[in-house]
Amino acid sequence: MKLQLIDGNWFAIETWSTDDVLSRDDGEHNLTMEEAVEVLSLCADYHDCNHGMTWDLIDFNIEKVVSERVRIAHHEGTQNEKP
């Protein structure tokens, strides 16, 4: 955690990176850099202010992003099928 001075007040800033997200991928998901950024964005938007960013939150959002990727791939695959 680093301290940052903003408008005369000190804030403790948690620093999470795409490397943190990618380190949680067990190799099963093969997350892309774009997906890792999406995971961080979801975490920042929806984290619990009482708990902050957690590994559980990162894991949850990895699953969410991967599920969406699978849903889109399945949808695109069914659209390309001939009746």
Describe the structure.
β1 and β2 form a beta hairpin. The longest helix has 25 residues, at 55-79. The protein starts with a strand and ends with a helix. The chain has one domain. It has a two-stranded antiparallel sheet with strand order 1-2. With 83 residues, it is of the alpha+beta class. It has 3 helices and 2 strands; from the N terminus they run ββααα. α1 crosses α2 (33-46). It has helices spanning 18-24, 33-46, 55-79, and strands at 2-6, 9-13. The model has no long low-confidence stretch (mean pLDDT 85).
Can I get a quick summary?
The chain is 55% helix and 12% strand. It has helices at residues 18-24, 33-46, 55-79; strands at residues 2-6, 9-13.
- What's the number of extended β-strand segments? 2
Helix proportion range = 55-70%
Oligomerization status of the protein chains: single chain
Low-confidence stretches: none
**Shape verdict:** elongated
| Count of separate DSSP helical elements | 3
Strand order of the largest sheet: 1-2
Radius of gyration: 17 Å
Throw out a few tags for this protein.
alpha+beta, single chain
Per-chain topology:
Blueprint: E1 2-6, E2 9-13, H1 18-24, H2 33-46, H3 55-79
Antiparallel strand pairs: 1-2
